[in-house]
Amino acid sequence: MTSTRKALRAGLALTGLALLAACSGPGAENTASTTPGAAEAPTGDLRVAVVTHGTSGDAFWNVVKNGATDAGKQLGVTVDYNSDGDPGRQSTLIDNAVSQKVGGIVVSMANPDALRTSIENAVKAGIPVITINSGSDKSATFGALAHVGQEESVAGEQAGRKLKEAGRTKLLCVIHEAGNVGLNQRCDGARTGFGGTVTNLQVDINNPTDVESRIKGALQTDPSVDAVLALNPQVAVSSVNAVKGASSKAGVATFDLNADVTAAIKAGDVLFAVDQQQYEQGYLPVVMLKLYRDNANTVGGGKPVLTGPGFVDKSNVDKVAEYAERGTR
């Protein structure tokens, strides 16, 4: 384990323990915990099922998984991570977690309506649910304790505004998952912030060769397109390759980070990345479920717990890059 990795784990462990054991928290040795009649914290292992819509090999969701599993190790929580991009199969994964009587469920809602019955059944079974990443507007309606993520339309609007300020006039917004409401919200927000012409392009992230080919084709068909907004790090890399292949002068921006994106920002191939800090989307819900189980704490007051948007460009990429390399940004 590298020294930076050890430092990260130690820092996060202290943060989690401070939340769980600060002065009068569960397990603290003080007068509050020994007062006659005081409630004792629940005992036994906590098992949390994390069920996302991430597809196999998606670097973004690998970071979410790292956050959840790191929190589990540091807080003594068993974390079971599963994912499926098909909403029907994702619902089945939620149903399986309910039948296994887990102590908490964390779920991303790219297609909220398809998951509603499964999430509501989990809540009816007495299992606390926290939603992450997508579907924040449906979270409370479905009975979830809280939502952790960013507001996609707001993030899209800010991204569109930054591209406008960079002098771009015609934008191609690349949607890589059909039916993902969050991706459509990003492009709709970008349209509002950009003000100029914005065209959506649908691609399939599971076919990287076709992704690059479709973006390249769109740029060759309309050479006046001078900006490409990717909604995923892998698509960002394909976009950079497509721009070069089409001999286009379009600038590329993207949502989300990985080591390839930070390298592309350093090289000047990507203007900026919208950072929603997905490690937190995995880490924080495990802490929140632990606090809820042990001390009946809730977070957010009915509003989403926002992890973004932030922006990474040449001004701050060097610092963020080292964290992206180790899988935590």
What does this structure look like?
- The protein is α/β, with parallel strands linked by helices and 329 residues long.
- It has 13 helices and twelve strands.
- The strands form two sheets. Strands 2-1-3-4-5-11 form a six-stranded parallel sheet, sandwiched between helices. Strands 7-6-8-9-10-12 form a six-stranded mixed sheet, sandwiched between helices.
- Strand 9, helix 11 and strand 10 form a beta-alpha-beta unit.
- Helix 3 packs parallel to helix 12 (278-295), helix 4 (87-99) packs parallel to helix 5 and helix 9 crosses helix 10 (233-245).
- The longest helix is centred in the N-terminal third of the chain and has 19 residues, at 3-21.
- The radius of gyration is 21 Å and the shape is elongated.
- Residues 1-39 have low confidence and may be disordered.
Task: Write a concise keyword list for the protein shown above.
329 residues, alpha/beta, 13 helices, 18% strand, disordered N terminus
